[in-house]
Amino acid sequence: MGLLTSTSSFLRYRIEDESQEISSENIRQKLKDNSFPEIPDAEMSESVSGWTTFENPFDPDFESDHIAYGNNIVFCLRTDKKSVPKKIVDKHIAVESKKAMRESGRDYLSKNEKKKLKEEIILRLSLSIPATPDVYDVLWIPDKKEVIFFSGQKSVNEVFETLFRQTFSLSLIRLFPYTKVYFSSSIEENSKNIFYNTKHTKIPE
Amino acid sequence: MIDVAVAYNKYKFAGYEFLTWIWFLTETDNKYIEETAGDIKEFYIGDKIVIENFKEDSSEKITISGDKANLDEGALALKKGALVTEMKIILKTMDDKDIKFNIKGESLDISGFNILKHKFSSSPEEIEGSVIEKVYFMELLTGIVDKLFQKFILLRISDKWTNTELSKISRWIDERNKSF
Predict the structure, then answer these.
(1) Hey, is the C-beta of A68 within 8 angstroms of any chain B C-beta?
(2) pLDDT tens-place string over residues B84-137
């Protein structure tokens, strides 16, 4: 569902700070500084994210890979996530809860103890399984101060927005009906104010 | 600027009304859409439309899809106060490319964006050309959505909306339901 797949899905963002100009070489350096960290599976916890290149998402070279395509910048967000199947977690919880109760001499575990036990089990199991990588394309259109992200998954969008802000010190605002009007340079301020006070009107029968 | 999450929910209706207006125009004044959009030969509704009727504590949703989708049931839902929340649109470009996409009213997000019978090469030698070509088509599409949405907003906040446009839409719904 990415930039060059036959079918694409995407969200549009507007860069909030209009005054800040950023060169493609500056962008390249910032992407490199926040690139996807290669961590061995055995040392990686639940999830890791970072930037990579569009040309070589699994083996990027930020010195030589393209990031400028025409007037636009293209790169990718890579997120590697470990997901331990629930049934495996449940099995370990059942066995280790019993053991913990036997050792404590009680026939119950407190809410906090159960929570801590579950977290420890997930962390331990995570270290023994490989992470699943996902790559999402990013298209930055500087002329329009617009960024297009090729995913509609809420959790991934949040990771993208946070990492983008940390990397470039720029905030992204999703474009939807209200923000489209707010950022429109073709709609006058008084018209915008009328829209802000508008409510849905039913179509008369 | 108000809080983004609050604004998203508060102004969803504008996107739903926009898509409902687009459906109305495709059946009553498609030339207006094509002229407003510019750079295209044709604009029509594809094989999916989602209509929802929002009530105080619930909502009813109708999805009409398929190659020979009949929109009559949707028109009946409009008569009962429903609005279009999502639809598939097909554009024919000046060089006869058919662009198909799905648009959601609440966010105006695009999914299923597909240029029919057109393949983008991802070979290393041609990748740059493919990216530039795909971005051209994306900007064409988003530009058209933006132009139509802006036209809608300017109409929506004008007196013309309540004085004439709403009754035109109402008459169109009535006519559609008469022939159903």
Answers:
(1) no
(2) 999 999 999 998 999 999 999 999 999 999 998 888 777 777 888 999 999 999
Q: What would the pLDDT profile of B58-82 be if each residue is shown by its tens digit?
A: 888 999 988 766 788 888 899 989 9
- Domain count within chain B: 1
Residues of B within 8 A of A7 (CB-CB) are 112-114
User: Residue B22 belongs to what domain range?
Assistant: 4-178
* ipTM, 2 dp: 0.92
- pTM for this predicted structure: 0.87
φ, ψ dihedrals at B176, nearest 5°: -65, -40
CB contact under 8 A, A177 and B18: yes
Domain ranges of chain A: 11-82+133-171, 86-127
Q: What is the 3-state secondary structure (H, E, C) of B108-157?
A: CCEEEEEECCCCCCCCCCCHHHHHHHHHHHHHHHHHHHHHHHHHHHHHHC
- CB contacts < 8 A (A, B): 130
Of B18, B81, B156, the CB nearest to A202: B81
